């Protein structure tokens, strides 16, 4: 797995370094290395109570959540251990016992 950032324009994973810049071979977008470092530091994800979440935290679901494409439901009070924060609308990736891998929105969880 590459440690280089994805392209901010087209989200391509095939970026490469060229001097002081990163370059995307798919859309030809170039951006400085300093800009890529500063975007990761500014991301703050908070739970429903306003607590800052970090990778590896344990959270509790605060609302019954229907699982899209299934008749299953994630019940209120379900503990989710070892979360991973990601970019996007559903900003938490996790594994829930009995259900499997899922993406959750941070507004439906609280930090334990």
TrEMBL record:
Domain spans labelled Protein YjdM N-terminal: 3-32
Membrane-spanning residues: none
Residue span(s) of domain Protein YjdM C-terminal: 45-112
Superkingdom of source: Bacteria
Cited InterPro entries: YjdM, YjdM_C, YjdM_N
Pfam family, one: Zn_Ribbon_YjdM
SUPFAM superfamilies assigned to the protein according to its UniProt record, in alphabetical order: Prokaryotic SH3-related domain, Zinc beta-ribbon
NCBIfam families found in the cross-reference section: phnA
PANTHER family named in the record: PROTEIN YJDM, PROTEIN YJDM-RELATED
Family under the similarity heading: Belongs to the YjdM family.
Stated name of the protein: Alkylphosphonate uptake protein
């Amino acid at each position: 797995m590459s440690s280089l950032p994805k392209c901010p324009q087209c989200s391509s994973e095939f970026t490469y370094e060229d001097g002081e810049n990163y370059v995307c071979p798919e859309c030809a977008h170039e951006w400085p290395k300093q800009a890529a470092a500063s975007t990761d530091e500014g991301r703050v994800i908070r739970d429903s109570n306003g607590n800052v979440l970090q990778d590896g935290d344990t959270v509790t679901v605060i609302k019954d959540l229907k699982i899209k494409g299934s008749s299953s439901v994630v019940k209120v009070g379900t503990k989710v251990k070892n979360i991973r924060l990601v970019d996007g609308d559903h900003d938490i990736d996790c594994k829930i016992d009995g259900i499997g891998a899922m993406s959750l929105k941070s507004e439906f969880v609280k930090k334990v």
